[in-house]
Each structure stands twice: as structure tokens, then as C-alpha cells.
Amino acid sequence: MKQPITHCVLCGVALTPVRSFSRLLLRTLPDVLCATCHATFEPAASKEAIFTYNEAMQAWLNQYKILGDVLLAYSFAKELHAALAKGDIVVPIPLHPNKLAQRTFSQVALLLDCAEVPYVHYLQKVQDVTQGLRTRTERVASTNPFAVAPNADVSGKCFVVFDDIKTTGTTLQQARACLAEAGAKSVKTFTLCASEIK
Question: Taking the model in full, what pTM does it have?
Fold first, then answer.
């Protein structure tokens, strides 16, 4: 973030900067949502996600992913940084090159960039399918759209596969299977939000 965000990225209300020694010394990420907007996002019950996929999150994802409001990528940077900045190698769910060209940005990688979470593109998407356009039955029955990236050595390494949303979990399971079959030591999953549907 080159210039500080001084207003809530959702409602536009002026943000009151919090000045503290811990923020200065620990170089924590700033708040970019006002308390009122942040309160509309419900914490997830699972330890594998930060938020529940509720109405507020649905609207946020639409504005971010579909309408391309990339400034929103900073919305949950503090939470993502706290959850993912240390530990296993973070692997973002990739977009197929055609989808990336259409969208112009990788929403998952941008979330990690804004949260200052290091990651490695160990996966590539080799099938141009959008899970959100499929039924639950079609998602579960689909073939794995992922492959390990060329020249990527995953054997013996520990990973956290990260995606923006978990609905059925099929995407995460397919990515996990791809890395595990290539010899990964362990593969966990984590998302910004998760649907309560099992």
C-alpha cells in the first residue's frame, strides 16, 4: 500500500488512526474497515477459515472478484497475516490463464500480497472450469483441474493451500490431493471464508 488508506474501503467513513508503540515496533498492518463494517463479517466456527460466508461476505466477494474493486484486498490483511505469515509454505489456488486474462488479477494471490504473506505458486490450473457454475454433485464428481507447476519440487514439504472461499470443499480437496500425490509431507487448507453447508 503506497499511500495510507484513511477511509473505510466499504462505506467511506474516515478511519481514526490507532497510534501505539506495539503498532510502531511490530509494524502491524493498518485497519482499512471501520468497526461497523467489520462487525458485519461473522467469524467462522472452523479453524480452517476466518469468516463465515454470510450476506456481507457475499456482497464483499462480488464487489472484489466480479466488479474488480482491488482495494478491497486490504480488507482482511491483518487477519490473514496473523493466520498465515508463519509456518508452512502457503500455496494460493491458481486461476486458469484464460480466467486470469478475463479477470486481470488473481484474487487469491492479491489477498496474500496485501496481507504480506509469502507464498509460492506450486500449483497450476490446467482445466478452464469455474466451480461456482457447477452443482454440488458436478463439483464432487469432477476430475482434478490442478497440476503441480513444472519444475516444482514438493516432496517432503509442508503446505497450506489457500483460497478465498470454501463452499463444498472440492477445490481445496483437489489441490490437496495434487500436492500429496506429488510427495508433499503434509497439506492443510485455509480460506478467508467458508460456507456452513457441509
Answer: 0.88
